Request: fold
Amino acid sequence: MSHTAHIPSHRKPRRSASKTAIRSGVAGGVLSTMALAGAAAPANAEPVTETIEMPTLTSGLADSTARSAEVTQRIAADLDLRVRQDSAAAHAAKLAKKAKAEAERKAEAKEKAAAADRARAASERASRSEERTTLSASGSAAPASYSTTQASGSAAAVLAFARAQVGDAYVLGSTGPNSWDCSGLVQAAYRQAGVELPRTSGPQSTAGTQVSLDNLQPGDILYWGGAGGAYHVAIYSGGGNFIGAQNSGTGVVEKSLDWDPPTGAVRLL
Reply:
């Protein structure tokens, strides 16, 4: 036995001929490509060191989202402004309509008051003329005749005012100028003659001297119900008629006594 019989060999295993050939071919191809590239490049060419950054999709999406949010906010702001403008315009129109209605109401009330003043002035002129005629005929003052003339003049003023309200609405508790209840109209009419009446029907039905329905004079207060407890009042206008704020269905009307016969009457003028 030799001295090297148990010593393992340090030689690498021999590669197969096929693997060696393949590796030789690959290496040769690479060296050939490098040789061609070197020959084609200029002699003084510098090695390429610049890197190109490609745009990222994330950046584009962020910009698009920001622009979309800005547009949305602008549209919302425009819509909010338009709503505010429309609301302000509607409010202004409502105020204008209300102001117009109030101005018309005041103008109508002023016209009615002027008509009542004209009627009162005409009545006073007629009263003075009749008084002068009476004095001229008798040659002296006639107290009884003067008293009757004054009552007729005051009654004319009362009736002129009441008749000017015909067609107005009936509203319970209202005292004018465009709507009335029965006692409110009577009170306002008598105020034209300088007579201040109680506000409600009951006291008005006992405010003067009780008179028979067969002996009525223009300006007498008619009442429905018991004296002192009347539930409705109106004004006798002569010729078998009366003027009164009857109810919400008719408003202020001038009607025949037969339409709604009263219970009694009182005289103040």
Summary: The two ends are 174 Å apart (CA to CA).
